[in-house]
Design a protein that fits this description.
Shape: globular
Structural class: alpha/beta
Strand content: 25-35%
Distance between the termini: 29 Å
Order of helices and strands: HHHEEHEHEHEEHEEEE
Number of domains: 1
CATH topology: Rossmann fold
Radius of gyration: 16 Å
CATH class: Alpha Beta
């Protein structure tokens, strides 16, 4: 693809994300996203995390299919969910639902270490290939059951779930550090879903807050085999 056109499209997308953040400020309480989140969104080449014949759509502000009934999330939603985690450079992040690794790369541009779990073998392989080629050295991908998280690396400073479980994922909440945040869409496919931001209290309970109505692909059951790929 023409690099100049890609850059024009990328700049337009960043402007659209800023506009969407302002438009949804009454619902989210955030009129703009942090500088480090916006810098990560601007630096990660989204077209590199899509199939070649879909790359021309990479900088359109909407979700895109990546096969197996899964999607790469809308850039505005990626920025919103990332911003709500309030990441610091030393943080360790757990991501459930790697896809081709786009959100993983955004996290890698902000946090210290990212541990990402994906249920589909071909997605795990594709994500590792892309992340290694683009030199995101602090990203680790595992092919396993997303419902189980990555317990031996817990606790995490932040957890993001990029697909919607029908009920709140308490097992994953157990892997969250005290005072840290988890963001998750909850609800069944083709039914109303809600995006929650949760903070773990000192006593281990979760304070849950609704952010927005959303529409995510379902969080699927995964294979028996656990395989770390990076």
């Amino acid at each position: 693809m023409d690099p100049e056109k890609l850059e024009i499209n990328r700049q337009r997308l960043m402007t659209e994300i800023e506009a969407d953040a302002f438009e949804t400020r009454k619902r989210t309480g955030r009129r703009k996203f942090s500088d480090h989140v916006m810098a990560a969104m601007a630096s990660v080449p989204r077209h590199k995390f899509m199939a070649p014949d879909e790359a021309r759509f990479a900088y359109i502000n909407r979700p895109q299919s990546i096969g197996h009934g899964q999607t790469i999330s809308q850039p505005y939603i990626v920025a919103l969910m990332t911003d709500f985690l309030d990441l610091a450079p030393a943080d360790r992040v757990l991501e459930i639902g790697t896809g081709f690794g786009y959100q993983t790369a955004v996290f890698s541009s902000i946090a210290s270490e990212v541990y990402s779990v994906v249920t589909i073998t071909s997605f795990a392989d594709a994500a590792v290939l892309r992340l290694q080629k683009l030199v995101y050295k602090n990203a680790h991908v595992r092919h396993a059951d997303g419902h189980e998280g990555w317990p031996e690396k817990a606790p995490f400073n932040a957890i993001m779930i990029t697909a919607a479980p029908p009920q709140f994922p308490e097992t994953l909440a157990d892997q969250l550090a005290i005072g840290s945040r988890m963001i998750v869409p909850v609800g069944r496919s083709h039914e109303p879903q809600t995006l929650y931001i949760c903070t773990k209290n000192d006593d281990g309970t979760l304070a849950k807050k609704k952010i927005l109505p959303v529409a995510f692909v379902p969080m699927v059951e995964s294979p028996k085999i656990t395989r770390s790929t990076t």
